[in-house]
């Protein structure tokens, strides 16, 4: 006999496939066997049909195509015998699914088998229907399933209940047909039927509010009695699992009680006693008992308020945290996060255990416990919790340091009782994990330091000490050199000493040594080196005796391949060498930075050019309102006074520092002096300008997009039409007595609401330059209409081919609750005047870690764009 003929037994084929040494041999065996099966199908060989289908099922499980055998399933199902039907239904469930059109042909056979006199054939039909039922089949066969829920045999009733669950999921409207039969199943004594009946009633309650009210009134007491009987029942080997009576039925009953009790005080009162009994008497030394306890806790936390029960439930979760099983601890942490919104005081009692979970070796438990600790922190416990977390930061693994450092910084910033404590904790974090600290965090630290004048000396001394022990932490180095540059005199003179600190001896040379080391350190990046050069320049003003040494160190970067460092070196050397008379004024201590303004910008709720103070901002040549203070760290404050018109101030934009006296007031009616222009032109290494006809015509020489925008190149300035000295100073800084007023000849376009939902509103504002009518500048304002913070906020847009779209980064990737952020974009319409602008947009963000995606099409752009 041919070993691969249709008469080959299933076991022989399996043996031949397993004996294949390569994938090619296996494919050859399967190919020959499939050919033999096709031949047998074509010959309509009824003797081997069931064997062929069994082989096809095995081949299907190996991943090979078997669609050619689908009709054989239907033929076997139509056979009168039980063995053929069994293979046919098994093949039907494996080889087909509800999306196959062939399935429509089996509906009639299923209906006949559901009414068959042989209960085993009825059971086969119910199993198949429960696995592959489609919506059409559900509507056709629901009456048969409803009838079988009252069948005499418990196995049939059980399978019918499972089949009814599938029908309700496919067609929720049919749920009302199963309300009474489902309620009847709740009185069953057979556990198999009872558990499926409970499951069926739970599904009905989830899809029908009328059914939910019916079960609350009619079945709550009966379910409580059933659960009490099972909890108090004696040992039964038939249902025992690890010494617990039928934990699966326990869990199903608790889930149904949770659905019934949620939002209903009467039903909740009815089940309080049995929930307390289950929670207190169930053993927790086995997984089966823990599963029941966890489900019981979920039920207690979901039903209407009962303070004592909730404390009991949270205590159970506290015990779970001490379990050696990582899975149990993880689900306990998840549940405690939910419980925190209900009873935070009860969760606070387990703070020490949760803190130990932060130190766990399992990464998932670490992160979840850290999130829970973050939610537990308040003004009363911030100090001990921050201390514990910082101590663990010292020994934590590198992969976890980033998350831990971020949470500690957020906790310290949010709940700091006093500034000195905040500064101390942040220095500890920077010393241990400065590499992982984000930029806005150390910016915020500098803002706080500037706002605490009585702590300037203490802070600079603490940073000086920390720098000697943690010089590898880049962020710590940046904060330290910034403070040393600002407060080097306080460091050397031991000014502002507090009772809790010991004096240290630091010479002027030591201060310069620290900055020089930072510049030359192999790990320092361009930003750190640039900040160090500024600090050296400021030290040269604080300590004139060190000027020559500072000049030498700065001069070493004149040949740097990094343009930023080379430019700073050239400019700073020129300031030290040629402009002694303005250096002290130029390098005065930074003014106090406004904390509220910085916090608003950091949260993305304030645009960078909006001033929160009542003082007026000044005009710059391109007509954009800007605040006068340009901070080296981009931590500008809008609360500083407008600068005076003295010639010394015209170095401000060039050096990126503010040299204004805090009490200075704007001076009107004064023209800048010729000397001021000479100083600036000398510093820029360009010749003395000759007279011009009109200084205001060069108002666009310096095109500024933000506080850090570069000034126009020297070639541009020198090649423009000559101008008067006073006008040159106006062109560079806009500090003249009569700033040029640019007439806005751009056409006005109305703002539109591009998109609006219950949680998000998007508005577009339009501007267009007359000389470039094809290009439209759009400012999108994204407003959060919900009380939740949106994180990982991302706006995406697509336009047709005749349009070109350029998107700038948004002002923040976090959209605060009831706040807003902005994003600019530029659209170029090659068919301007012929085709309007259209845009497809998509917005993605996260709410509490859950991804949200919103899409829409914008068709209401104003005409003429």
Please describe what this structure looks like.
With 865 residues, the chain is of the alpha+beta class. It contains 36 helices and twelve strands. The strands form four sheets. Strands 5-6-7-10-9 form a five-stranded antiparallel β-sheet, with no helix packed on it. A three-stranded antiparallel β-sheet has the order 8-11-12, with no helix packed on it. Strands 1-2 form a two-stranded antiparallel ribbon. The longest helix has 24 residues, at 209-232. It is elongated and about 110 Å long. It starts with 9 loop residues before the first helix and ends in a 7-residue tail after the last strand. Residues 1-5 and 605-744 have low confidence and may be disordered. It comes from Camelina sativa. Belongs to the adaptor complexes large subunit family. Keywords: Cytoplasmic vesicle, Golgi apparatus, Membrane, Protein transport, Transport. Residues 747-862 form the GAE domain. It is found in: Cytoplasmic vesicle membrane; Golgi apparatus.
What distinguishing features does this structure have?
single chain, alpha+beta, 865 residues
Q: What is the terminal separation in angstroms? A: 82 Å
How much beta, percentage-wise? 5-15%
Regions with little confidence, pLDDT below 50 for 5+ residues: 1-5, 605-744
Query: How many individual helices?
Result: 36
Largest sheet entry? 5 strands, antiparallel
- Using DSSP, what is the number of strands? 12
**Helical percentage:** 40-55%
The radius of gyration computed from the alpha-carbon positions, rounded to a whole number of angstroms, is 39 Å
Mean pLDDT: 81
Q: What topology, given as strand order, has the largest sheet? A: 5-6-7-10-9
What sort of overall outline do the alpha carbons produce when their principal axes are compared? elongated
Structural class, by secondary structure, is alpha+beta
